[in-house]
């Protein structure tokens, strides 16, 4: 990220203002008033939020700064599950539905808060029984089923650190994450079910734990009958274990700064970063945004279509909504199976009121046409949200008109794995501008700056930064604090996000995309270096370079340039082999759509591949400054 760039915004003045009742009836009330209250006394603002939750022992200080580090709610003691579960069970939400899950062929499971707490306590005792202690790492590699949520909460119950790996990742990606975290236990399932197809998860785990000496046990949720065989001593059955332990498990007393979980995200090297989140700050941040951004009320049915394996699922399927006592709907069904109406039929069936999905899904729905949503009654919806990449104006319009029926406000929420919670959006009731995420939420100071950190003039572009710490910020990168420091030292004094953005006349922020070597494909963060190193690990490949190409539905698609080793000839068969190899190493989400065999790659004199040049050539545009190009 070395160069400034020049964007002049031609502003579209179009905006939509929601019915004033949204603002009037919201938890937040007026955005400006709330933001000013935050600016007046930042610690008082967060202290007030934190006081809405239950603590075993209160904090000495709201925050303690030691740049680039920050601690929040110092010396406070808590357990996040006591807030997500016990707090509701001891009150009026005891018999309220906490989780409603839908799988294929009409499968459904419902857990009340009481039932969910019981399951979590039993599974927490299972973890204890197999030797998991406070601070131990547990890897969760599961399909989108309630047991995944139970496993996460059970870890949190006893203070074990969960590292959830999305069930779509391949064996090598899983292996790297297990090894990096030195996970003691892996929790998985026999299979996951996607679009009617059965994917053997356990066999991927078997491959991933070869050479992972830290793994003592694998706990397997067996979904299929007849049940798969378990390897004696190593593999244990999820529900059999639960029947063999006591029912009660007190919540472990955690320090606010103890680690709650690590979650891997792509960076600009081949090795993903284990983002570390802590108990206290993360709890306050996800609770606050679930209540005041999503405006969740007791009568809502909240559906976030992400997988708990991503940060979106951690924050807005599990911890945030449960902390506010919401009814959370989750589904293993994909948007296009059994047909393109699957999501809309679920909204009608469950009377979903708040729906949170990704632009890539919205653009796919656009492509499939309005006849699908038009077949269903979507009138239960009151708020619709978006996350993961820019919601382009065309997709905004479609979402607003066809799904929201010109009545539901759209919350286009900008945030990251690192931020843990929403950071920028257009708060409920405020005028929405297609293409713009909006303004920093109360509690957050964000801006668009030039490379020296100076705020850019309205109408111009620059780097998106966060100017002061927030409770749910990452505390470090697991085992690699240097990479943490980089976020805070790229531009002095601020947290550099890695996104390019433009500021509108009214301060509204439009996110343009990544400024680094990360490609967002269908809402998933993929490092070019990860795909390149997967390709190079194939015996026929000498070198490779990967770029993102604009794609209407996915936002970007991956194109790989490959130099073959001597003795290997380009062929369609080899191209297919390489795609399969990436699928097996990282997973289906990282498979290049195109592979081009080349003789050389554009490089700097120091040998760095200039992906920018490849991209410009690919798109037939001017590559810009190429003075550092070798030859
Ligand atoms: C990157 C973070 C946060 C959960 C999902 C992704 C992009 C995210 C938006 C948005 C434009 C967005 C950014 C960001 N992004 N939300 N509303 N508008 N871009 O989490 O995998 O950590 O990716 O996703 O580029 O830096 P993640």
In short:
The chain has 631 residues and is an alpha/beta fold.
Largest sheet: 7 strands, mixed
CATH architecture of the domain at 109-251: 3-Layer(aba) Sandwich
The largest beta-sheet arranges its strands as 5-4-17-16-18-19-20
State the CATH class of the domain at 109-251.
Answer: Alpha Beta
The amount of helix comes to 25-40%
Radius of gyration, in Å, reads 24 Å
Query: N- to C-terminal separation?
Result: 23 Å
Total E-strand runs: 31
- Unreliable segments (pLDDT under 50, ≥5 consecutive)? none
- Attached small molecules: 5'-O-[(S)-butoxy(hydroxy)phosphoryl]adenosine
CATH topology value of the domain at 109-251: Rossmann fold
Strand residue content: 15-25%
Chain-averaged pLDDT: 94
Shape: globular
Textual characterization of the structure:
- This protein is of the alpha/beta class and 631 residues long.
- It has a seven-stranded mixed beta sheet, sandwiched between helices. Strands 12-11-8-6-7-14-15 form a seven-stranded mixed beta sheet, sandwiched between helices. A four-stranded antiparallel beta sheet has the order 23-24-25-26.
- Among the domains are: 109-251, Rossmann fold, CATH 3.40.50.980; 518-619, GMP Synthetase, Chain A, domain 3 (2-Layer Sandwich), CATH 3.30.300.
- The longest helix has 17 residues, at 113-129.
- 5'-O-[(S)-butoxy(hydroxy)phosphoryl]adenosine (WT7) binds next to helix 11, strand 25 and strand 26.
- 5'-O-[(S)-butoxy(hydroxy)phosphoryl]adenosine (WT7) is lined by residues 265, 311-312, 387-390, 412-417, 437, 497-499, 511, 514, 520, 525.
């Amino acid at each position: 990220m070395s160069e400034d760039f020049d964007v002049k915004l031609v502003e579209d003045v179009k905006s939509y203002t929601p019915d004033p009742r949204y603002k009037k009836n919201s938890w937040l009330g007026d955005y400006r008033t709330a933001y000013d209250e935050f600016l007046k006394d930042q610690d008082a603002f967060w202290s007030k939020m934190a006081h809405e939750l239950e603590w075993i022992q209160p904090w000495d200080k709201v925050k303690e700064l030691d740049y680039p580090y920050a601690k929040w709610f110092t010396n406070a003691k808590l357990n996040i599950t006591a807030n997500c579960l016990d707090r509701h069970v001891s009150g009026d939400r005891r018999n309220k539905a906490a989780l409603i899950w839908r799988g294929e062929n009409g499968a459904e499971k419902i857990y009340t808060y009481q039932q969910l707490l019981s399951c979590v306590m039993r599974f927490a005792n299972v973890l204890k029984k197999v030797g998991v202690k406070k601070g131990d790492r547990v890897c969760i590699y599961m399909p989108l089923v309630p047991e995944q949520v139970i496993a996460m909460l059970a870890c949190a119950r006893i203070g074990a650190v969960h590292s959830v790996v999305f069930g779509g990742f391949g064996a090598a990606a899983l292996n790297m994450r297990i090894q990096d975290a030195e996970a003691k236990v892996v929790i998985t399932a026999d299979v996951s079910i996607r679009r009617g197809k059965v994917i053997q998860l356990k066999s991927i785990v078997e491959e991933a734990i070869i050479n992972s000496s830290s793994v003592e046990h694998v706990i397997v949720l067996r979904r299929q009958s007849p049940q798969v065989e378990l390897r004696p001593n190593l593999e244990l059955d999820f529900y059999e274990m639960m029947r063999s332990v006591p029912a009660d498990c007190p919540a472990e007393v955690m320090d606010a700064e103890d680690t709650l979980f690590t979650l891997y995200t792509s960076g600009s090297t081949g090795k993903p970063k284990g983002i570390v989140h802590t108990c206290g700050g993360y709890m306050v941040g996800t609770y606050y945004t679930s209540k005041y951004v999503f405006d969740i009320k007791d009568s809502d049915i909240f559906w976030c279509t992400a997988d708990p394996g991503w940060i979106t699922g951690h924050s807005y399927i599990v911890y945030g909504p449960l902390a506010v006592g919401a009814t959370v709907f989750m589904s293993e069904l994909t948007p296009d199976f059994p047909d393109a109406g699957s999501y809309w039929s679920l909204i009608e069936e469950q009377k979903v009121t708040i729906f949170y999905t990704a632009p890539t899904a919205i653009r796919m729905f656009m492509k499939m046409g309005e006849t699908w949503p038009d077949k269903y009654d979507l009138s239960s919806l009151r708020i619709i949200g978006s996350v993961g990449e820019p919601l382009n104006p065309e997709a905004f319009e479609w979402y607003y008109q066809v799904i929201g029926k010109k009545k539901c406000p759209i919350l286009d929420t900008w945030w990251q794995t690192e931020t843990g919670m929403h950071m920028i959006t257009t708060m409920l009731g405020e005028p929405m501008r297609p293409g713009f995420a909006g303004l920093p939420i109360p509690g957050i100071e964000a801006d668009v700056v030039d490379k020296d950190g100076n705020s850019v003039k309205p109408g111009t572009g620059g780097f998106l930064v966060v100017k002061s710490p927030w409770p749910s910020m990452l505390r470090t990168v697991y085992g690699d604090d240097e990479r943490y420091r980089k976020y805070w030292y790229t531009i002095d004094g601020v947290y550099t996000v890695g996104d390019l953005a433009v500021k509108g006349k009214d301060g509204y922020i439009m996110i343009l995309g990544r400024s680094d070597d990360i490609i967002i494909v269908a809402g998933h963060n993929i490092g070019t270096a990860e795909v390149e190193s997967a390709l190079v690990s194939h015996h026929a490949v000498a070198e490779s370079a990967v770029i993102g190409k604009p794609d209407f539905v996915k936002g970007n698609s991956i194109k790989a340039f490959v130099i073959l080793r001597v003795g290997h000839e380009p062929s369609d068969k080899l191209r297919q082999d390489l795609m399969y190899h990436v699928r097996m190493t990282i997973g289906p989400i990282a498979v290049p759509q195109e592979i081009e065999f080349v003789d050389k790659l554009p490089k700097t004199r120091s040998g760095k591949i200039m992906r920018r040049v490849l991209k410009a050539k690919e798109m037939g545009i001017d590559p810009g400054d190429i003075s550092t190009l070798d030859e």
